[in-house]
Amino acid sequence: MINVNEYFNGNAKSLAFNNSQGKFTAGVLLKGEYEFSTSSKEWMTLTAGKWEIELPNGTKKQYDIFEACEIPSGITFKVYALEDSSYLCRYV
């Protein structure tokens, strides 16, 4: 089954699915600033566009296409989509 998720007045959308390798979402973010919370560890891989991720400890890093970021569980973090972007997220 594919679940459709929509956030931030339609500026962020994702498709969620599970398979033998785990739980995933594939999504798009329009240019803008977004704040997300995690309930499990995530690996976010940028598949198109450019963004910057800010973790709660103040660490900020810019990501280019096909770069991945490890997001710890139980935190709130910010994504600055510097242009319209797409991603794949794996939950572990």
TrEMBL record:
This is Pyrimidine/purine nucleoside phosphorylase. Gene3D superfamilies: Jelly Rolls. The keyword Transferase applies. GO terms for cellular component: cytosol. It comes from the Bacteria. Keywords: Glycosyltransferase, Transferase. GO terms for molecular function: purine-nucleoside phosphorylase activity; pyrimidine-nucleoside phosphorylase activity. InterPro entries: Ppnp, RmlC-like_jellyroll, RmlC_Cupin_sf. It holds the Pfam family Ppnp.
